[in-house]
């Protein structure tokens, strides 16, 4: 690993980093300038998080940083504050580029930059797929201070947008680098690295240190300092993790039972495919739950719309594929349900990382059917503990089956109708909300949180 010695010296052990947290209690102590300290204060950031304590001082000293931090750790602030501070010292257009794997993450990062940098007039532009390239070219022509981009679309602009280049760039951030590389953005990242100055600062953030990330680190970082705030596959302490072992054919009934048992909470439910996400959302809506889907087959606008409704608490249940399992800034998830068990055990960590954030407590419940035992054992092995079973009254679940079967039937019909409608309109958008609204009546669903029936 390049820069191994320096990393070793700077990384510190858990105990050392605790000591640092004790000593440094404010953003000011970390070297953050007054105007940015005020911005943190306005956001309600009273004290820096662990990754901020570790990364900000070294970044302010001008070092490259590798940040190994779990979701919700405050890593965006850890790279945004040093960049904004450098921008204040030497104002310049096209100053920083943040690469991130998904569109949702890009918007969230941009929001944080704008919130922290509002008093200093920072301008950001988000460059992601699924959005009109023309308006993006115009935004780039205005030369924002910070560009937040997914690699594919940025390369598009670097190759095709006249007058746009990143030859004066001072900072490169690769956020969720492991995921960028897993999504096969390697070629795009290489292309980007070739057209930005070598003389720049680079921050690489990743939840896990994979071989690909190590390779990227060697290629892109100079003499970096490693800031790790948690061991590799640890799940947070305040997270209560459960499993339920159930026959596959009763999954829907068990889901409804749990949603009723834990009514009043906000839920994130993970499904393995777009189709199942959509189907389950329809099913739950038919039973009177305020459920909303988020998956890759929805248009960008609909995805953001779903997320915003959930964030604003207009919906209490978000159903998502793994597209949404990492990095999304959803502060109020009380319960994560792995309705379909993740095929890659590491996704388990990312999924359950949606709850129990920022010191709050949370629950996760993983559905294990007769087909999932091996995958579940792998998860237990990865997190290094045996999970308890979630307590349930089987008879109560069985009392739900008839009603659930009826809702399943209607959901299947709706899915079919939506498919036909889509084909006839040749429209790739997703119509879930409108479509469901009508059919809610069919199932006699009530929009109450408590006991859907
Ligand atoms: P991130 O890990 O960057 O996605 O941040 C997760 C959440 O933590 C975001 O909602 C941030 O606004 C919030 N956050 C970041 N830093 C702090 C802090 N020092 N104190 C409180 N909240 C924070």
TrEMBL record:
Any one GO cellular component localisation term in the record: cytosol
GO biological process terms, semicolon-separated: ribosome biogenesis
**Domain Helicase ATP-binding per the UniProt entry, residue ranges:** 56-227
Its Enzyme Commission number(s) read 3.6.4.13
Q: What is this protein called?
A: Probable ATP-dependent RNA helicase DDX47
Q: Which residues belong to any copy of the Helicase C-terminal domain? A: 238-398
Q: Which GO terms describe its molecular function?
A: ATP binding; hydrolase activity; RNA binding; RNA helicase activity
Specify the DEAD-box RNA helicase Q domain's residue ranges: 25-53
Self-association or partners: how does it assemble?
Answer: Interacts with AGO1 and AGO2. Interacts with GABARAP. Interacts with NOL8; the interaction is RNA-dependent.
Q: What gene does this protein come from?
A: DDX47
Compositionally biased tracts (Basic residues): 444-453
Pfam families listed in its UniProt record = DEAD, Helicase_C
Cited PROSITE patterns? DEAD_ATP_HELICASE, HELICASE_ATP_BIND_1, HELICASE_CTER, Q_MOTIF
The UniProt family comment states: Belongs to the DEAD box helicase family. DDX47/RRP3 subfamily.
- Motif Q motif, which positions? 25-53
Q: Is the Nucleotide-binding keyword given for this protein? A: yes
Question: Which InterPro entries does the annotation name?
Answer: DDX47/Rrp3_DEADc, DEAD/DEAH_box_helicase_dom, DEAD_box_RNA_helicase, Helicase_ATP-bd, Helicase_C-like, P-loop_NTPase, RNA-helicase_DEAD-box_CS, RNA_helicase_DEAD_Q_motif
Q: Where in the cell is it found?
A: Nucleus
- Which reaction is catalysed here? ATP + H2O = ADP + phosphate + H(+)
Kindly indicate whether the keyword Membrane belongs to this entry.
no
Keywords of the record: ATP-binding, Helicase, Hydrolase, Nucleotide-binding, Nucleus, RNA-binding
Biased composition range(s): Basic and acidic residues:
414-427
The annotated region (Disordered) lies at: 414-453
